[in-house]
Amino acid sequence: MLSNLKPQAPDKILMLIEEFKADTRQGKIDLGVGVYKNPEGVTPVMRAVKAAEQKIWQDQTTKAYTALSGEAEYRNAMTRMVLGDAPADRLASLASVGGTGAIRQALELARLANPGVTVHVSDPTWPNHLSILKFMGLPFTEYRYFDAETRGVDFEAMKADISKAAKGDLVLLHGCCHNPTGANLSADQWDEIAAILEKSGAIPFIDLAYQGFGDGLEQDAAATRMIAQRLPEVLIAASCSKNFGIYRERTGILLALTENSAARDMTQGSMAFLNRQTFSFPPDHGARIVSTILTDDALAADWRAELEDVRKGMLELREQLASELRNLSGSDRFDFIAHHRGMFSRLGATPEQVQKLKTDAAIYMVGDSRLNIAGLNRDTVPVLARAIVEAGI
Ligand code: PLP
Ligand code: TYF
């Protein structure tokens, strides 16, 4: 049986990690996988996470099973973090295996409710969105998003394509910090998207993997909250991997806003069922870290302060890189780097130019010219800027 298996396409972002490790050159720079790194190149355990783990270690008296949907304390705390004052009578929630697990369960839920569901995704989007959709055999279509000229959003094209989504289709939107481009909608543009969805009856499915990495914890949730207020049905897949720095704990949540409380109860039951079919109880440790932090004023304040430092550090690097490139190139054509938000910016370089950066300068970024801003520090920004100009980008 197993000899019938065929090779699966590898994950190009994860392959870069191995390629980078194998490079023996001094001063090599890793701008590949989307993991936050401090100026020393370390992905730290956040202070509040350490403190929460200590508290859990001291206070926890059992490791018995929790609940299929995850602990209520975690789900309530995350609901508050993502949605603020959520319409609780319409809200179902499910602890998931990372943000990816929430995406998968959201798609499973949509398919359960509507077996022919079509999903609209941005062009480009996070490659795992596409690979999960293909694996599940769900029909999907891409809406135009990135303007290769300005490196911003091609909003007119996006609106035209999203207007084609039919009632009951899912429209997958990045809630903030678009991956891989770094280009995001303004608040007014979000309003226009909400109006289009209100009109068509297509259902927003928001992937929120970088809350707190863009304009701030509250600001990054603003679009999601506005959509949740306005649309009758909304799916939200949120990840705690980045903003709590607990990548390997696999902590995420699926939030589903339903039309009424009867639909909420049915949805909640279906979501618990989906967990049971997949892995039974969701992982608890990361979720408990998050709820311990969010329900303790001092820990929450310390976590928010550290997250703000992380966010501001990335913004400073953006400003520095844009300014170096302005000086070196004698033009403002790289200013988009300062306007982008989150960990990533898509440079708009050709695959050959990306390869040249790797070969000539030992600078690693994803083949589509996505770079991880957090892979830089004050000293490596000028190195990158020079290499970008030398590669003719
Ligand atoms: N969605 C996007 C756009 C992402 O970039 C990520 C990545 O890390 C995720 C979802 C899910 O992350 P995780 O499953 O590690 O929580
Ligand atoms: O886009 C990224 O780099 C992050 C991390 O299969 C990631 O989202 C990349 C690939 C993958 C899982 C996570």
SSE diagram, text form:
Elements: H1 12-22, E1 29-30, H2 47-59, H3 72-83, E2 91-97, H4 98-113, E3 119-123, H5 127-136, E4 140-144, H6 155-162, E5 170-174, H7 187-200, E6 203-208, H8 222-230, E7 234-239, E8 251-257, H9 261-278, H10 285-294, H11 297-329, H12 336-339, E9 344-346, H13 351-361, E10 363-364, E11 370-372, H14 380-390
Parallel strand pairs: 1-10, 3-4, 3-5, 5-6, 6-7
Antiparallel strand pairs: 2-8, 7-8, 9-11
The chain binds pyridoxal-5'-phosphate (PLP) and (2S)-2-hydroxy-3-(4-hydroxyphenyl)propanoic acid (TYF).
Keywords: Aminotransferase, Pyridoxal phosphate, Transferase
Subunit structure: Homodimer.
Cofactor: pyridoxal 5'-phosphate
Question: Keywords, please?
Answer:
Aspartate Aminotransferase, domain 1; 7-stranded mixed sheet; two-stranded parallel ribbon; Aspartate Aminotransferase, domain 2; 11 strands; single chain; 393 residues; alpha/beta; binds pyridoxal-5'-phosphate; binds (2S)-2-hydroxy-3-(4-hydroxyphenyl)propanoic acid
In DSSP terms, counting alpha (H) and pi (I) runs of 4 or more, how many helices?
14
**What is the averaged pLDDT score?**
97
Strand content: 5-15%
Q: What fold name goes in the CATH topology slot of the largest domain?
A: Aspartate Aminotransferase, domain 2
Per DSSP E runs of 2 or more residues, the count of β-strands stands at: 11
Spell out the CATH superfamily of the largest domain: Type I PLP-dependent aspartate aminotransferase-like (Major domain)
Q: Strand count, sense and closure of the main sheet?
A: 7 strands, mixed
- Give Rg in angstroms: 21 Å
Classified by CATH, the class of the largest domain is Alpha Beta
Principal-axes geometry comes out as: globular
CATH architectural label of the largest domain: 3-Layer(aba) Sandwich
Subunit structure: Homodimer.
Pfam family, one: Aminotran_1_2
Cofactor: pyridoxal 5'-phosphate
InterPro entries: Aminotransferase_I/II_large, Asp_trans, PyrdxlP-dep_Trfase, PyrdxlP-dep_Trfase_major, PyrdxlP-dep_Trfase_small
